[in-house]
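ok trying again, last paste got cut off:
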Amino acid sequence: MTQIFIFGASIVYGVGAEEAGWADLIKRNIHNRMYSKNGTGEKFEVYNFGNPDAKIEFILKTFEEQIENYGKDGKKIVVLSIGMNNAKAVGNPDNYVTKIDEYKNQLKKLFQQMKLKVDHVLCVGLTSVDEQKTTPKSNGSYFRNQRIEQFNSTFREVCIEMGITFVDILSEQQVCGQACLYKDGVHPNQKGHQLIFEKIFPQIKSLL
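nice, full thing came through this time. structure:
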């Protein structure tokens, strides 16, 4: 049995997708591989632990319990995308939720712990926003592309340092622009989720 555990926040959960978020598309593809006419049978499991509003602190507190509760004998793969909610500001544009150095240290701690529990960790980079709709959002939070890019760079750098595969989707998603964004300006729409899926699924297939 090969298990895929997907951790993250609202984008992992699938917010903005009319039909299926990128994590759901992974599960759909895996199910087709197993249950189609000439499928492999039940050799894989996919768990989406995306939690809207989650920050990296939440993943640190919960991922180990999830793997222990659901884990079985066989290969375990973690797919992780986290940091958007750490990059934002709340209340005013400079009241940041997390300092970049704090995020960096938390990532290192998280990766160290994950490597003890699973066979592979695959990380998915952050996405850009439409600042006309996110500075601020209606709930008083601020998402700015410059800061998201800084967190994305930190995410990538820590992955490289610790020998973890990082799939950078920011540049392609920026090219797609508003055509890939849901109306709230933060979350990908169905086209955006499809773009992310197409970038990361080849990496997942190589690990199965």
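cool. The first helix runs from residue 10 to 13. The mean pLDDT is 96.
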